Amino acid sequence: MTRVTQARQHHIQVVAHRGASEDAPEHTLAAYMKAIDDGADALECDVRLTADGHLVCVHDRRVNRTSNGRGAVSALELADLATLDFGTWKGREDSVESPDWGDPSLTSVLTLERLLELVADSGRRVELAIETKHPTRWAGQVEERLLQLLGRFGLAGPAAAEDSPVRIMSFSPRSLHRIAAAAPTIPTVYLMQFVSPRLRDGRLPAGARIAGPSIRIVRNNPGYLERLHQAGHRVHVWTVNEPEDVELCARLGVEAIITNRPRQVLTQLGRA
Ligand code: G3P
Ligand code: CA
User: Which intervals hold domain GP-PDE (predicted)?
Assistant: First the structure.
């Protein structure tokens, strides 16, 4: 892996996708603590509502892949989720074991509240990029709970700083629109798996401030990135794990790289 040359470098924020999720089980305290230790600028997490209204950090609709349980997050209460082991699967999948992954204090279900506490206690500015998952099924409840919780940490509402350390991402324009209407100081990121024909000129849906294209879009259509920048949008690209993709993103001037490998990307950028 060669380092990105100094001449091409600008400040690129390195965002740990689901925590340092190549090295530790995704969306666990173990993964986020590792990401903070690695020096990540920001942490990415997906949030879902449990049956009893708690926001938890889980990517899939069901817990089957990343725990020893079964069923949809939305059908389980927090107390049910708290009995599950979200760590051991990682050792089986990657053939890499760590004693930490069997430690329930590090690999039990992670609430967004606990993640906010971790960030608040980190001793430095660590930003959070929170993705609302399938918010349309919940008719505004995910956003409402999210803003309530952020308000308790002074991250939304009247006490919130202009320069918000939290941003909210979604594939759903409706979800972003709700956030923008209720909390205009919180930046919103519109995630894209493909570019819809009506947005090819670099515009974003109403309520979205930052563009979040996949690395595949960037590889196949670098000109689109230029249009996003020309339209005045920052660009946060996911999920960028390969050195040649980091190089491409740096060359194209993206503002943030979302990666499962924060330590490796920081090293390539000459920051670790
Ligand atoms: O950071 C955006 C990215 O996480 C979107 O895809 O499936 O990993 O949530 P996914
Ligand atoms: Ca995500």
Answer: 12-269
Q: How far is the CA of 163 from the centre of ligand 2 (A)?
A: 22
Q: What is the pLDDT of residues 146-193, one digit of tens each?
A: 999 999 999 998 888 889 999 999 999 999 999 999 999 999 999 999
Residue 255 domain flag: yes
Residue 17 a catalytic site member: yes
* C-beta separation of 119 from 128 below 8 A: yes
Q: Residue 54: inside a domain, yes or no?
A: yes
- Minimal-distance CA residue to ligand 1 atom 1: 238
Q: Is 59 touching ligand 1 by the criterion CB < 6 Å?
A: yes
Q: What is the pLDDT of residues 68-125, one digit of tens each?
A: 999 999 999 999 999 999 998 988 777 666 767 778 899 999 999 999 999 999 999 9
Position 76 in a domain: no
Q: Verify whether ligand 1 is closer than 6 Å to residue 58 (CB atom).
A: no
Indicate the number of domains in the chain. 1
Q: Which domain holds residue 230?
A: 7-65+110-268
| pTM of the predicted protein model | 0.96
CATH of the domain at 167: 3.20.20.190
